[in-house]
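Operator note (shift B, R.M.): manual run for DUF3995 domain-containing protein requested after the automated queue skipped it. Running by hand, logging everything below so the morning shift can see what happened. Input copied straight from the record, untouched. If output looks odd, do not overwrite the archive copy; leave it for review.
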Amino acid sequence: MSSGSAGGAVPAPRWAVWAAWGTVLITLPSGLWRLGNALGLPWGYASARWDQDGLALIALSLLTTATAALSLGLVRPWGQTVPGWVPQLGGRVVPARPVVVVSSIGAVLLTLLWAQLFWWWTVEPVPSGVDPRWHTPVGFLYLPLVAWGPLLATVTWDYRRRRRASESV
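Run finished. Output pasted below as returned.
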């Protein structure tokens, strides 16, 4: 299940591939909940309906999952060499340093952002507009996001390790 080798690239270990896919999968529960609210399903918000708020919830869900999917580039060949079908850039080596810097910053920010979930879920009162009966279920849907930053950091560390190994060959 590890990625194939691109040029002199070192393939990702199985655990890193699983961790990268984990970053995508953990965004799905909260994203599906937001989509349900956008479509007017009574999943906790009294004012859920199809309008600008609904469009924002859909956009946020898609953006969250797409952003998480970028971590797959850390374990796939296209994260090390631009695919040949990309005009003018195909076949070029992706510079490792900017990838590691941006991914590391993302991991730190995600960790700081989602670590607050525990506070929101256990200490703060239920926000206005939220049905109190949904406070705990929604917390469980968002809880996987706490792992997003640490998973991304782990995959980033492995990407950096593998890129260094391929450069020294």
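Quick read of the result: The chain is about 55% helix and 0% strand. Residues 45 and 128 are 9 Å apart (CA to CA).
Leaving this for review. - R.M.
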